[in-house]
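Long-time lurker. I teach an intro course on protein structure, and each term I like to show students one example going from raw sequence to a predicted 3D structure in token notation. This year I'd like something fresh instead of my usual example. Would anyone be willing to generate the tokens for the chain below so I can use it in lecture? Attribution to the forum is fine with me.
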Amino acid sequence: MDASVGLARETAAKGDVRDYIALLKPRVMSLVVFSGLAGLLVAPGTLHPLLIGVAVLCIAVGAGAAGAINMWYDRDIDAVMERTRGRPIVQGRVAPADALAFGVVLSLFSVMLMGLAVNWTAAALLALANAFYVFVYTVWLKRRTPQNIVIGGAAGAFPPMIGWAAVTGGVSLESLVLFLLIFLWTPPHFWALALYRSDDYARAGVPMMPVVAGADSTRRQILLYTLVLLPVALLPTILGTAGWVYGAAALALGGLFVLCAVRVLHDETHRAAKQMFAFSILYLFLLFALLILDRAPGLLGAAPLA
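-- Reply from a regular --
Happy to contribute to a lecture. Here you go:
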């Protein structure tokens, strides 16, 4: 793109509502919000339904705001990656300065509303999650180390802790386990994507694991993380956060996730990696859905362990 043309597009961009919604990364946000809702619903104690709605809104807006800032910062590499070149800033539909302002304002709004309406512990965790995603992952790690997803994945693991804190006002071992579940799920999820998008990342100069360490090493690490994740996913049952219904489902789903990783390990094509990436999203969604159902009296006919 010619620099003068690009500058004109940046300064003249007037995005519509759909472009600003796209800045929030709604598909990514949906899973984040669902895990945050799970943290709210499985936490001990009660919260007024209106405040539950406010807390979920704050988590959604905060996650979306961090996504918008990420798009602002990464607009140069987004322009050369096939997967991201259609984003609003790259296409000139939203000016970078407008996207940054949009993200910052929404981030501050979500944290302040969480603090004033719910509690400041949840607000502090929300602020930490946003800051971690923007400054630690996006600015510091993403372009410097193949461990970007491993460390940076912590940002996406905060929502259930935020939801838990919204109800209890604090952080506990049980909420840390929910954090750990997403933290360990993130590397195999994103590395499966990176395996069949490695050319994209290489072209953009992003040191994802397949680009730096190679596909074979990445496949082995995917398997390792799924093996570690399997027993961690059972901890909510062991700690009494959930009952046997969740535990049985977590064991079965974890076994399927490991099986996906084994298939990726022995598949030189991208087919198994694509299938694992798709299943990883379903895996996490089902885990948190069953966690909610297992805690809901009478829904599945099983009570959590005392």
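Some talking points for your students: Residues 172-306 form one domain. The two ends are 62 Å apart (CA to CA).
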